[in-house]
Write a structure and sequence with these properties.
single chain; 684 residues; alpha/beta; eight-stranded parallel barrel; five-stranded parallel β-sheet; 19% strand; binds adenosine-5'-diphosphate; binds iron/sulfur cluster
Amino acid sequence: MRDPRHDVLFTPLGIGPVTAKNRFYQVPHCNGMGHAMPLAHAAMREAKAEGGWAVVSTEECEIHPSSDLAPYVEQRLWDDRDIPALALMCDKVHAHGALAALQLVHGGAGASNLYSRETLLAPSHQPSRHGYPSQARGMSLHDIGEFRRWHRAAALRGKRAGMDIIYVYAAHDLTLLMHFLQRRRNQRTDQYGGSLENRARLLREVLEDTRDAVGDRCAVALRFATDELAGADGLELAEAKDIVAMLAELPDLWDVNVAPWDNDSVPSRFAAEGAQEPFIDFVKKATSKPVVGVGRFTSPDTMVSQIRRGVLDFIGCARPSIADPFLPSKIETGRVDDVRECIGCNICVAGDMTISPIRCTQNPTMGEEWRKGWHPERMPPARSASRVLVVGGGPAGLEAARALGQRGYQVVLAEARTELGGRAGREARLPGLAEWARVRDWRVGQIRKLANVSVYLDSTLAAQDVLDFGAQHVVVATGCRWRRDGYGRSNGYGIADCVGNPRVFTLDDLMDGRMPSGHVVVYDDDGFYYGSVAAELLRRGGCHVVHVAAEDCIAPWSQNTLDYRHIRRRMADLGIKALVSQAVAGFRGTTLSVADVWDGTRRELPCDALVVVTARTPDDALYRDLRSRASAWPDAGLQSVRCIGDADAPGLIAHAVYAGHRYARELEEPTGTGVPFRRHFHTA
Ligand code: ADP
Ligand code: SF4
């Protein structure tokens, strides 16, 4: 049973008129499904409620067409016809004894109105942030009255949908209510501008409106940013303290964090568990109301400490609840070892950013609860007593072996190296990526508990070994290698001077400890985290590093994971110079010639070594050998051979884990020939 030290996490606490059964609070988080996929959304939230969260929140919910967040897919309560979609979620959440919370939003100048074509609204005239390059209108007093009316109506609709907690949202620099607080966005001279009291007037009024509208049955939560980390240009801690003092007892719950979003959901490369504490710990001292805050909490001891030290009353989680929807129930039942800890990679955030359903590196079922019927904890039992051989112990092979083992198959995992983990373990040794090892550690921990899964290290298998083994099913998860020839998006024929050049290095070399020295250029044609991580490793190892990017900025895809601004700052702090929009024109001796892709300007860089981060080659030789010997399968008793993960097509660790999980789920299951998942169809 549970460790008595964790008891405090399971004490109920009142929030205004409602009571949360424990201290686990899933704070609002976007998911790319929203109003477009209400059934998928409700099922995802239900998984959290079933997993023991006392409160399960929506993502942002637009209150009016003047706050249309298209193309991002969030929730919507523009009129009564939007109620049923959210009622679906409330029913599912309530079925497990949890409270449902609704995060109302008006995005102000941060909305897009691309879909609604309404005029954007702001405290004073200012440029828009999304959508067309247009401006938002400074609101008249009439507009302010209308906004209050819309907010109130949306709160009432939320209550009718069955919500227990209604949010007033002034955080992340994403909402009109926060924009009124910010001096740079609010340059009004009337009663809503100027002094802090005036700038906070609308927030106070909306809190009062919401309580008046729904407070008899619903709690009113205030989501509030305590700092923008932008110095005097932004909302600062001192001002936030005054606002908290002014509004201290008005909401039933304070939900506090740091703005903007990339300072809140900071990737693990740039912030550790509990990093927000110095910015929010004052709030509990200023109010008698409960306080929830986040910090990518996965350790129950840290959670207990937050409560015991009076920092928080509720342990707020978005990402930890995505990586493991059953985190509370595992702690409650003393199964802390089974908690699948978030690795802080923000692939979940990338779902929202790329306007696609949420996915998670650690939890391959995230976003698949409804459309594939995947439960985060349960798997269909094995259909037979078949033996399955998994070749390769990286993320794909480990997850396949674990999940097949959970189903009850007899599984053997063979790994060429003397350690498990594949790229998850290798990349975890690069600067800032230590938490990637959790992908390996959780799976290895689970496999150890399964008597029907055996692991063989130091076992490089060739096709004949596999045939001799006598498994009915073989899954090849042998991974990939970084290319050394410079081939990639920008160099369809490779880079001539790379081939056979001993001064050219790959990420595999660096991970294997083969480190260059002197002047090193990292040529990044990949655009995600690898280039900057290599640059950081080399710089910390004493090299002079230039980060040369083919694109117009370094690491453009990292915008989707909220890494981008942190990467730029870290590169600047380390003195790593970025050269963007460059093509490699030649690499002779210790001179690298690069040329600007737009104006052709050439530059010669001193270069003792060139690290090429361009593309990867699947290690699929074993799979191809096995396929070419298909005629020998029947005698070997072999029924199927599949190739998954990076050996199939190199991608993110999330892709490899998903591929392993999917393989295990689908083995010997009947599969149709149609679309392999359910979709939403609109009938009217
Ligand atoms: P993925 O991300 O698809 O899981 P990784 O590269 O992380 O891929 O892991 C692949 C693993 O497979 C590596 O640990 C590698 O050592 C192992 N491997 C590669 N070839 C063989 C082989 N022929 N036999 C056994 N293991 C192999
Ligand atoms: Fe955590 Fe990454 Fe999963 Fe997001 S995608 S919840 S950051 S492990």
